[in-house]
Amino acid sequence: MLITCPYCGPRDVSEYSYQGDGNRTRPDPASTDQEAWNAYVYDRLNPRGEHHEIWQHSGGCRAHLKVTRNTLTHVISSVGFARDAGHRKSDGHRKTGAEA
Amino acid sequence: MAEYSVFSLLRNAFSGNRDWKPAWRKPDPKPSYDVIVIGGGGHGLSTAYYLAKEHGITNVAVLEKGYLGSGNVGRNTTAVRSNYLLPENIHLYEHSMKMWENLSHDLNYNVMFSQRGVLNLAHTPAQLDDYARRGNAIIHSGADSVLMTPAEIEWLMPGIDASGSARFPIIGGLMQWRAGTARHDAVAWGYARGADRRGVDILENCEVTGFIKDGDRVVGVTTTRGEIRANKVAVAVAGSTGHVMNMAGIDKLPIESHVLQAFVSESLKPFLDTVVTFGMGHFYVGQSDKGGLIYGGDLDGYNSYAQRGNLPIVEEVNSEMLALFPSLARVRVLRSWGGVCDMSMDGSPIITTGPLPGMYLNCGWCYGGFKATPASGWCFAYTIAKDEPHPINAPFTLDRFHRGAIIDDKGQGSTPRLH
Ligand SMILES: Cc1cc2nc3c(=O)[nH]c(=O)nc-3n(C[C@H](O)[C@H](O)[C@H](O)COP(=O)(O)OP(=O)(O)OC[C@H]3O[C@@H](n4cnc5c(N)ncnc54)[C@H](O)[C@@H]3O)c2cc1C
Ligand SMILES: [Zn+2]
Predict the structure, then answer these.
(1) How far A64 CA lies from chain B's nearest CA (Å)?
(2) Is the pLDDT reported for residue A90 higher than 60?
(3) Among A44, B3, B252, B361, which is least packed by CB within 10 angstroms?
(4) Which of B46, B64, B72 to probe ligand 1 with, by most ligand atoms within 8 A of CB?
């Protein structure tokens, strides 16, 4: 299986670490809605077909990627940076280069 | 007289083996049944068998989308053991172990259950301490377990690298002598025949394509062989659980499907007469009666419904084998394959009524459900017949995750690929 990293190009799956299901959104850290937390931690769509998932190019540029992959055929139909899809963990806390 | 015996062997030998009956019929689906079991794997077939045998419910159909044994029951590496840490798991798997010990007699079918022992190797003092703790928990719950020294291990398996210069020197191990292996196809065929002879219809090439509902209640299924109705619909489809439950309108479950690969080497002379697991990676190996080494390791590690895996795991598993048994370096791999495992969020199964009225669910077996085949079917049949769980499977509910009552034997948390 090859994943085409937007920075590095097509690389073998062994260069990547699987971060799991990319369909989940973490509740607001201040949320006390137990059901929402339970659903986030335990419930999965687990589709047979197109699956949105997060991979990290840990053996390369280390970017987190949002990948759409078919779980039946392993065909990858799209790869983008996870941050572009709203998967940045620290949105709002991030300093620009000049501030850092 | 039993259908299979020395006498029937002789009688059929003299008549040229022309008079054997097929082990199960190939009936056409009836319009309705008391119980439908979806999935003709080990668990579905044993469920049907115990529904008929223990509860007298014989108007039952098992619906299998392919041929019987085409799923994980025919793809696993056949290790049977009951050496778990948590009491819920030990009770379930030890119940299963006791059933294995009498299974060939009960089914009148040789499942070749061989109590050759399963040994977990320890390579660090902390690991050995952990094994001692697990061994005590196992003994406390009534199963068997014993610590072994490196010298005993070397005596038991001369091919292993027990030298101090091994990459991960062996400092001991935890053995369960009553554990072992069984012939997986025979388990499927034996349960199928036993269920069939008691009146159960086994419907192969009958894929469930949807559920028929009356309001919320499940009252039947649509299949590639027509509509079939039932008072009770039981789901035991292992790796396909997410896909099948989705058809019933349950879009999320505490399950991910992952692919696990297995390997068989060319035949060797007797080399290893127990099953052994590596403690510094994920690897285990045993030897079949035909001489092939049967071995496997970790999941590929990403969601998959494909019954095949990728090359990095092939390399990893084989290099782990060589770390333990350097003498196998020139042995050739004959075959490899993959099976789709229903990985649950705590590594333990789900055997329960619901989640919809008229429905019953058996899933979450990860890559360890073969050993549970007898107990799983036995508990599931009880649950279906009585509409409540047996005390053995009462902890294995679907709502335990949201109630915080998880049964996480390895303490890995909700990352299913690590269980
Ligand atoms: C490589 C590998 C090695 C393993 N090694 C071990 C081991 O050493 N020890 C151990 O204890 N366990 C092991 N396991 C796990 C074990 O094989 C499974 O947990 C167990 O077999 C699952 O239950 P089953 O036999 O009912 O599953 P299956 O045999 O997979 O049965 C499910 C059936 O449902 C059918 N199905 C799916 N969808 C539909 C549909 N829509 N309509 C009708 N039918 C459908 C499938 O075709 C399949 O036949 C291993 C698994 C794998 C893949
Ligand atoms: Zn990259």
Answers:
(1) 15
(2) no
(3) B3
(4) B72
ipTM: 0.90
Closest listed ligand to the CA of B188: 1
Query: Distance between the two ends of chain B, CA-based, in angstroms?
Result: 45
User: Which pLDDT band, with edges at 50, 70 and 90, does A95 fall under?
Assistant: very low
Which among A13, A48, A73 has CB closest to B243? Answer: A48
**Confidence at B388, pLDDT banded by 50, 70, 90:** very high
Distance from C-alpha of B327 to C-alpha of B358, rounded to nearest angstrom: 55
Residues 6+ apart with CB under 8 A from B98: none
State pLDDT tens for residues B226-235: 999 999 999 9
Q: Where in chain B is the domain with CATH 3.30.9.10?
A: 118-177, 256-344
Distance CA B135, CA B130 (A): 9
Mean pLDDT of B241-255: 96
**B11 vs B6, B55, B72, B194, CA distance in Å?**
9, 34, 35, 22
Domain B30-78+184-254+346-418: homologous superfamily in CATH: FAD/NAD(P)-binding domain (3.50.50.60)
Residues of B in contact with A58 (CB under 8 A): none
Closest by CA position to B173, among listed B190, B185, B155, B191: B155
Helix segments in B330-399, DSSP class H: 373-386
Which ranges in B325-372 belong to alpha helices (H)? none
Q: State in Å, rounded, how far the first CA of chain A is from the last one.
A: 38
Give yes or no for residue B172 CB within 6 A of ligand 1. Answer: no
**Average pLDDT in the B94-110 region?**
97
Q: How far is the CA of B363 from the centre of ligand 1 (A)?
A: 10
Q: What angle do CA B362, B368, B371 make, to 5 degrees?
A: 85
Residue B341 CA, ligand 1 centroid: distance in Å: 7
* Cβ-based neighbours of B311, under 8 Å, separated by 6 or more: none
Phi/psi class of residue B417: alpha, beta or left (left: φ > 0; alpha: ψ in -120 to 50)?
Answer: alpha
User: pLDDT for B262-281, tens place per residue?
Assistant: 999 999 999 999 999 999 99
pLDDT tens track for B120-176:
999 999 999 999 999 999 999 889 999 999 999 999 999 999 998 998 999 999 999
CB contact under 8 A, A42 and B345: yes
Distance B119 CA to ligand 1 centre (A): 24
Q: Compute the radius of gyration of chain B from its Cα atoms.
A: 22
